[in-house]
């Protein structure tokens, strides 16, 4: 039985290509993300990607920060292509950025690209100074009461 290929316009740009990021992609990581049409857009279902090799740099000390980034979402019309997501994460390898900012930026970039029905991004950062850090952000935003 022959494999059904995606139309040329829907072919992911990174799949099957050498994984080298340009300075422009590192400057604008959102541009790295590829999508493909949701094969079951009439159904709500969860997609979860766990990336245990995330690294960025502390903007104060310059020391590396290691984390596991988990993305869980319910797609609407688009899904993210996994290799492009991995390359997107690699773009943060040498960036000085706080835990809170990088986790929120990942959510913002994925929401802008995919327009999902729902998404949660969790960054579980390895211990530094004896303390682990976990940042969880959600779309749509949780409603909070202000006093």
Key terms for this structure?
33% strand; 147 residues; four-stranded antiparallel sheet; globular; alpha+beta; single chain; two-stranded antiparallel ribbon; 3 helices; GTP Cyclohydrolase I, domain 2
- Percent of residues in helices comes to 10-25%
**What is the radius of gyration computed over CA atoms, rounded to a whole number of angstroms?**
17 Å
Count of alpha and pi helical runs: 3
Shape: globular
Word description of this protein:
- The protein has 147 residues and is of the alpha+beta class.
- The chain has one domain (30-139): GTP cyclohydrolase I, C-terminal domain/NADPH-dependent 7-cyano-7-deazaguanine reductase, N-terminal domain (GTP Cyclohydrolase I, domain 2, 2-Layer Sandwich).
- It contains three helices and six strands.
- It is globular and about 45 Å long.
- The mean pLDDT is 90.
Task: Give a brief rundown of this model.
The protein has one domain: 2-Layer Sandwich (GTP Cyclohydrolase I, domain 2). By secondary structure, the chain is α+β, with helices and mostly antiparallel strands.
List the SSEs and their pairings.
Blueprint: H1 23-27, E1 35-37, E2 47-57, E3 64-74, E4 78-80, H2 82-90, H3 99-114, E5 118-128, E6 131-139
